[in-house]
Design brief:
Oligomer: single chain
Number of helices: 8
Shape: elongated
Helix content: 40-55%
Length: 296
């Protein structure tokens, strides 16, 4: 028995009509008929085939995950897990290579700058040592020759140097008090690492400076399908976001990567720890999008 026949049999056993099932699942009647007859090409897309079948199975009391597993060869696949994992591994390798190349290209410049600073400092020190006289020097003033003892000069100079050091230390202390480390005042930020392409496009976004808890919130005024998975493929949410159940909150605290599959981006608002998120690709241009969050 194919998947459509199993769903139809379960619907009839539950005593549901197509009209009542349409009210329950919010899936149009013509799509329900197409699923029962196995005409998956009549659905809006391959992604919706799995989503609609999953919602249908839940509504008639079947185990949706088990049903999809048993009929995985029969149901159209939008994108294989192996392709997704391969893309993530390749992207991680490329990012690591870029960071390593940038560090080693800057390192010689840092070394040269430190050497120049050291040479200048040594030159100033030797100049000051050679310029300090130990013998009395003669100063002419109005035709008279005045003998000034170098010890007096050294005492005056040392006194002024001590005053200058005290002023510099006070200035440095004030500057240190005014400086505030970025990490202590850092706010949650988004950085687009890669804008997705293809169909559907998958964009990569870096989330920096999250708080101890990281909560994703989803809200919609229509019915929008949403998948939320961890980097290990664990499903955290997989259903419709509707006006009735909005807002949906998903706790991703402790995760390094989070994968989102959004059926209709123009109708789904996303916030991360109450900070609004903007899609890398204009939702008016690409309706169905995928997002990969790298959490730093």
């Amino acid at each position: 028995m194919d998947v459509g026949a199993r769903l139809k049999e379960a619907r009839i056993a539950k005593g549901f009509s197509l009209e009542s099932l349409q009210e329950t699942t919010k899936i149009q009647k013509r799509y329900l008929v197409a699923i029962e007859e196995g005409n998956f090409h009549l659905l809006p897309g391959k992604f919706y085939a799995r989503a609609f079948i999953k919602e249908y199975a839940t509504a008639v009391g079947l185990d949706s995950d088990e049903l999809l597993k048993e009929h995985k060869e029969e149901i159209p696949k939008s994108e294989s897990e192996s392709e997704i994992q391969y893309t993530r591994v390749e992207r991680s390798k490329e990012n690591a290579a870029e960071r390593s190349g940038t560090f080693f290209s800057v390192l010689p410049k840092i070394i040269v700058a430190l050497l120049i600073i050291g040479i200048i400092g040594a030159g100033i020190w030797f100049y000051n040592q050679s310029y300090s006289p130990n013998d009395p020097e003669e100063i002419e003033d109005s035709g008279e020759v005045i003998i000034q003892n170098s010890n007096d000069n050294n005492q005056d100079t040392s006194g002024s140097e001590e005053e200058n050091k005290d002023e510099e230390e006070k200035t440095n202390d004030t500057a240190e008090e005014d400086e505030t480390p970025e990490d202590e005042t850092g706010e949650l930020t988004f950085e687009v690492e890669e804008v997705g392409s293809g169909s559907p496009p998958e964009s990569t976004i870096s989330i920096t400076n999250p708080e101890e808890a990281l909560i994703l919130q989803f809200e919609s005024e229509t019915n929008v399908w949403l998948d939320v998975e961890t980097g290990n493929g664990e499903s955290l949410y997989g259903s419709f976001v509707t006006p009735e159940n909005s807002p949906i909150e998903v706790d991703v605290t402790g995760e390094e990567t989070v994968h989102l599959n959004i059926g209709s981006t123009p109708n789904l608002d996303i916030t991360v720890n109450d900070v609004p998120f903007e899609y890398p690709i204009d939702p008016s241009e690409r309706d169905h999008q995928r997002l990969l969050f790298n959490i730093n």
